Structures are given as C-alpha cells and as structure tokens.
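Limitations
The structure tokens in this dataset are predictions for the assembled complex, not deposited experimental models. Users should treat interface geometry with appropriate caution, especially where small molecules or nucleic acid strands are included. An illustrative entry is reproduced here so readers can see what is and is not provided.
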Amino acid sequence: LARALLLGRRGSAAAAKASAVKINEKASREKILTLESMNPQVKAVEYAVRGPIVLKAGEIEKELRKGIKKPFTEVIKANIGDAHAMGQRPITFLRQVVALCTYPNLLDSPSFPEDAKKRARRILQGCGGNSLGSYSASQGINCIREDVASYIERRDGGVPADPDNIYLTTGASDGIATILKILVSGGGKSRTGVMIPIPQYPLYSAAISELDAIQVNYYLDEENCWALDVNELRRSLNEAKAYCNPKVLCIINPGNPTGQVQNRKCIEDVIHFAWEEKLFLLADEVYQDNVYSEGCQFHSFKKILYEMGPEYYNNVELASFHSTSKGYMGECGYRGGYMEVINLHPEIKGQLVKLLSVRLCPPVSGQAAMDIVVNPPIPGEESYSQFIKEKESVLNNLAKKAKLTEDMFNKVPGIHCNPLQGAMYAFPRIFIPSKAIEEAKAHKMAPDMFYCMKLLEETGICVVPGSGFGQREGSYHFRMTILPPVEKLKILLEKVKDFHIKFLEKYA
Amino acid sequence: LARALLLGRRGSAAAAKASAVKINEKASREKILTLESMNPQVKAVEYAVRGPIVLKAGEIEKELRKGIKKPFTEVIKANIGDAHAMGQRPITFLRQVVALCTYPNLLDSPSFPEDAKKRARRILQGCGGNSLGSYSASQGINCIREDVASYIERRDGGVPADPDNIYLTTGASDGIATILKILVSGGGKSRTGVMIPIPQYPLYSAAISELDAIQVNYYLDEENCWALDVNELRRSLNEAKAYCNPKVLCIINPGNPTGQVQNRKCIEDVIHFAWEEKLFLLADEVYQDNVYSEGCQFHSFKKILYEMGPEYYNNVELASFHSTSKGYMGECGYRGGYMEVINLHPEIKGQLVKLLSVRLCPPVSGQAAMDIVVNPPIPGEESYSQFIKEKESVLNNLAKKAKLTEDMFNKVPGIHCNPLQGAMYAFPRIFIPSKAIEEAKAHKMAPDMFYCMKLLEETGICVVPGSGFGQREGSYHFRMTILPPVEKLKILLEKVKDFHIKFLEKYA
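Predicted assembly:
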C-alpha cells in the first residue's frame, strides 16, 4: 500500500524504488527495545514511592533553580523515609567505625575512640585481606552474622538465633525480593499466590509483578487502627484458592504505610493461621526500633513463634527482615540489611546461597554499618553515653512528631488520621469531593493522585497518593513521612491543612 | 500402602490408627519450600565461580583450622578476581575520599590532602542532607554521573557522553542483569534469545536461567587466541532463529575467562553485524584498564560505534558496563559500577528508572568509590604522584604475572595456555587422560571438575573448572586468577605443574 501510494504520488518507478528502499531502511531502524517489545512483567511494575509524583517534584525543583516563580521556595520531599535527607544527623559511632574500616590508617589516630577501633579491627579481620574492598562470602561476613544472631537473642529475650540462618542483604528490599524469587513457581491456577496487606509497601506488588506471581490482597482494618484481622486473612485466602496457589503470607510490622504495631495476640493468630494453612511467612520488621504509642511494643515474629511451642517453632517457615535504613540510624544509602530464616529446608539454603552468589555479595560497607546497628556501644564503653544520647534524641523526636502529625491532621475537616503507633509515616484518609473526582477522571488520574499533584504544585510538598499502596475502593489517602524537623513539620502540616480546606471549597 | 504395611507390622487397629495420625501429622508438616516446589528457573541457575569447588575449599579451610593434617597449610583461592583478598593494597586516594565522605569531621583534619577533600565535598554536596546515608536518585548521584560522562569522553578521545545516559549500578552484575530483565519477552519460539560467548562469565548464563530466556552460544576461537569471529556469530544466530527470537548480543572485552583483547576490526565487524541483524548490544568492559600484551589496546564499543558514522551511532542500541571491582583498584566489596546506554528509547529509559527505583538506589559509598575511579588525581594535584605510583605498580605487576603464567603453563606437557592479553585470569586447556575421564564419570562429575577437585585436595589451590564457563565438547580447561603476589604465584604455578604431571602419570 505504501509503495502504491508513493508510486501514485511521485509518478515514477525509479522514485518508487528509491522510496521503497528508504522505507525499508527506516523500518530496519526501528528500536529493538520498545514498550511493545519489552518484558511485559517489568512494564507492569509500579513503584509509587518514586513514581510520577516524584518525577514531577524533580521537574519543579529544576524550574525553581531556573528562577521560575512558584507559590513556594522549595520542594519538601515527604514521599520517602529518608531521614538524613531531612536533616537527621548520622549516629557518630556508626560513622566512626565505618570510616576506620574504610581507611585503616585512622586506627592510629588519637581522635577516634577505642571502642570504635575495636569494632573496626574485628570487622576488618572478617574481610579478605583485611579490606572492605574484598568480596565477602555471599551470605555476608561471618563475624557480622554472629553479631546479628547475638542481637536477635538479646532482642527476643534469649530465644536462640543461629548465625547460619542469617543472610546479610543489600537493604531489606533485596532480601525480600530474593526470597520471593525462590518461592514463586507453577502455572495457571497453581501459580504461586503471595498474600500482602492493603495498604502495602509497593516493593511487594512490584516484586510480584516482576515474578509474574499472583498478588492476593488482604485488607487492614482502618476503623480499628489498621489492625490485621485473621478473619480477613481467611476470606482472602479462600477466595484466592480458586485462581492460584497461595503459599506466602507477607506481614509488615510496624506497618508501612499504615504505622500500626501488632500486639502479641495478633501475631499469635497470624502464626497459627500460617501453620494451619501451610503458608510461608515473610515478616518485614524494618521499623522494629520505631514504636511510639503508649502501650505499644514491638514483638518479633521469631520470638512469638518460639513462645508458641515446638509444634510451631519446628515447623513454620519464616523469613524476617531488618535494615540499616530506618530505626534511629536512617542509613539508607549504605544498603545494609539482614534476613533471618527459620525452618528453611537445608537444600533450599544451598539454593539461596547459590542465587545470592550470582550477585557476589552485599556491599561490604553496608555490612559494616549493619554490624554497628546490632552491636552498638554498651554501658561502660567510652562511646556509650554519646551513642544513647543521639539515639534517644532521634527516637524521642520521632515520637513527638508522630503525635503532632496525628493531632494536627485530625483537626482538619475531611481528614482522618489513625494514631501513628510506629514506623515513620502518616497515612491519613482524605475526603475528596465528587467534583474533584470528576476532574481527576477527566485528567485520567486516580483521584488521590490528582489531589497530591495539586498539593505539590501549590505548596511544594511531595507526598505519595494512597492508590500507590492500595486502599479500599472509594477511600482516598496519602502517605507523608514525619521526618522533617519539628518546626518544619508544623509549617508543612499547616500548609497541608490550608490546601485541603481550599481544595474542599474549590470542589464543593 | 504405608497404612497397610504398618497394619501388617504392628498387628493392631489402634496402633494403625495412631500411626496414620502420625503419618498425617508428618505429612502436614512437610516443608512448603522444597527443591520440588521452588522456582524451577532459580533451580536451573549455575554459578561456578562460587560453586561446589568453592564450597569444598571452605570445608577444607575449616578442617585445617581444626588441625587436621593436609599436604598443604593453606587454601589459595584463585577462583575469583578479588585483588584485595590476595593482598593488593587499596588505592590510598580512593579510600581517603570515601573516608572523608563517611565521616565529614575528617574534612578538618590536616592529615588528609586537599584534593581528596575537594572531591569529598563535591560528592557530599550531591547527597541528600550531605550524607552518604541518604538514598540517592535511583539513577545515581548527578555529579558522579557527570564525572562518569567526562571520563568516557576523555577515554574515547572526545566522543560525546551524556550524563543522562549514565546509570550508576550495584557492581556491573546488577546493570547487566537489569538490562537483560527489561529485554526478555515472548513465549515459545518467539522467546528472547541472548547470544553469549563460550567460554563466558557465568553471570550471563545465570541471568538467562533466572529470566527463562534462551541462551544462544557462540564459540570463541581458542586456536586464534580466543578471537571472536563474525562467521561464528552468524552461524550461531542463524541456528538460533529456528527456536527463539535472538535479539541481544553480549560481548565481554577484555574477555573473562579468556583474557583476549578485541582489536578495532573485530569490534567494527561485531557492530556491523548487530546493526545488520538488529541485535541489542551489551558490552561488558569491566576489564578496560587490564590490558597487558604488546600491541593490544582497549577500544570501547561506544568509541568504535561513533567512528563508524551516523548510520551506526544513531541506530545501534548499546549498553556498556564498568565497575570499581577490577582494573587497578580492585574494590569489589563496594559494589560500585555504571552503565552507559546509547540509543535507548526514551520510554524505555523511563521504564529503566522505574525498575531501578524499586531497589531505591545503588550503595552510595560504592557510587563515591566509582567517582574516584573516573575522576582520579590529575597532574599538578597533591595526590597525583602517589596515585600514579600505586596504579602503575598494580598494573605493571599484573602484566608481569600475565606473562609469567602463560610461560609457565606452556612448559607443562598437556597444558596449553593462550596469551593473557588482558583481564586477570588464565584459562589454560588441559589434557585429561581417558582413564581420568572414566573415573570422573563414575563419580558423576565433569572431567575438569574432577581434575580441579583433585588439585584442591592435593595442593590447596582452588580454581574453577572450564565446564562452569562453557567450552567446546571434549576440551577441558580451568580458570585461575593471576592475582597472588609474584612469588606466591610462582610457587602456585609450580604446584599446578607437579600436580598435573603426577595426574597424567596416575591416569596414563
């Protein structure tokens, strides 16, 4: 057809031939890798925490730098749990140890404390050639895995932990994605189903998309402080059995984005359910140090599992995850983390090490940072008092900001915010008027994406729409970190309040 | 059947019932995650560099520590390109900058040079909150990507490089696996085929297994110093078209495990072939600083692509990879690296950033290390002379060891070793007598695995069998690093020689 058209237009066979060649050439120069030809599972991945709203925030920052006038002077990135980016100072001791490991000449410097030097020497002895630049074992440096095991035992009141069950990881995300990768199998109705909370942290849905596994949603109870109800787990599981083989149950405790802290009873119920229904448990416990509400306490799944007796602790397969990125240290950039596995089949442990070995090892300086998180200064050591002061200052501040955020949001008409029991986010429910919903539809946007885009454009505040985490149909939320310094956070919350009131008026 | 047997054996209905319950209980407590139920693609992954031979080496090390007598006193791990583990010292300047970034109090210390401080300040300015502990952009820190682009321009004699095309990665492995992940699609005969050299670095075969893509082998020409011949590429491609959709061509230059350095003509031929056959090019150039043989020189695919003219440089889709792990710096543990993409579709760049953002960012201290690799001291700067001395000392030593290894291997009857033009490995061909092949078969081992196991058990030297990299049917090899210090390497080569001669005698 194209040739015929060209022939008609140009009226000469020679020209037609030349054009045909040109067309062929052009055809041969189409890209190999396009949206149409790419891996459809990767295409299906969504990751809202760094999604369109964050790209927009980047554009606005560029415009501000160019001097373009806006109703604000800076973009505040409350989209991601990145404490240092919000001005939190690193824990001195942790950085001293990592610096000593990086540049061992400093071991002779009188300006570094002995307890930091002692730890640095121990870590370096665990490294090939005493260098952070050597590959470690794929499972991580031995002595650091021993320190992790000791930490878990202390944390869990003496429940034993075996260094052989500890795997150091590239942040918690890497561990979670790796375990999911091993777990997924089967085709059609026997494809592996992975149960995740809604709202969830979108690493889960992204990993499930990449692996072409089946996402099985269970809903947290917003009316009940985002509690997990086993009846809802059962409903979700039973429905899923019709279309897949659900064999993994993911728990995030303390919750992200929802901030709830699970009580002992809830965890027991979940473990019993996993035992009964033969589900592999994934416990994402990266916010274990971030618990703020009176009467709330962090219980690890591992500890409760042991307390439930041998029928449980000899059988339930559990992987739990921790990280250097959150807590009081906030060392996201180091990509440090660990996972502990319980009741993993010995052959699977071999498979896991094999899979990890393809990527050689987690970053060794991140492993060193993880070591200080699990092996901090103890009473009597030189650095103890400064360490405790720094740690408590961060955690007390976070607790204050959690309460402040809840209180301020709940004073705004059309916003409801559950208590921030833990973690570092508010996930308030927002009322969006139907006129705004219509306008969002006209822009082909989720209503809360529309809301968050407007918030960003009018105030410079970058938060993530609830639709990026999942929420009950017809309800709308956003996730905002509570990491900015108190005074800044207050201003930010005032701005959100003013924006929201104006938004309600505009679309009334 | 089990119940009937039990009934027969125990002779009582009550006992049979009790046993049946026990059986059921046991059945209900089978593992969820087993070799049978796991992801079959992960199960299919093989990674010889850290495979069975390395596990065995670990066991032997444990036995030595326990005081068990062996014909040797230490295990020498010549299986992996880990320079620092073999005693190579880190480049002082690189570590100074990373230490300054880690613990910025040191910026006030008179014991650090100004040029290191200047770089550290620049890197920290690129970090959120001036901290290595912040997440960076998923693509990597802006100013480091700028430095990478400048480095590439200098390296390639002025061919332009755009920081927007640079992605910092978690080592080169991460970049390679990520690009492959985006590329793989289709089912049945239209499943993506990935062409890789044989012998190859097993990251490629492992990533292909994980992604359930189709591995398409092209053979390097051992008789011709492991050169790449385009006729062999064409043979391989044409055969593959019958069972898959080959759309990716992977090149490793300098070669791993084979050490050849491709000349300009070869690279031009490969680029022309990729252009003609519409193949996406992956150029693994992590050994770009490791070129030893007279008359050999590293040419980047990017540079040759530009020199071939606009028809090529406007069209051929290329991703090339570099790393902090090899070269003269050997900083494997930092997991630093970058990739440069050329002619990637803008929509695919968006998809790439999205996919990378799920893992948040590459380790920031690894990014800092990468910065120093691409932005080292220059003439006139305080640290220049020490830097150059350290760099040249490492590279001159490697060149010496490359020649020594080739020469010593070629003096052993039944071993033939091509020149080690580049990289950091010897991949000698070894003659294995048929009696040894039979014994290997009896042990269900590949003949070269059998050989390497014997070598390990008798000498403590750990090398990787050629079967882990791929080789022509009936030929046998092993890969050995040339990283041990010269004197140690000589002893090691003597030991291999003695072992080989005894092995030939034993199985004559």
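Some entries come with short summary sentences. For this one: The first helix of chain A runs from residue 2 to 10.
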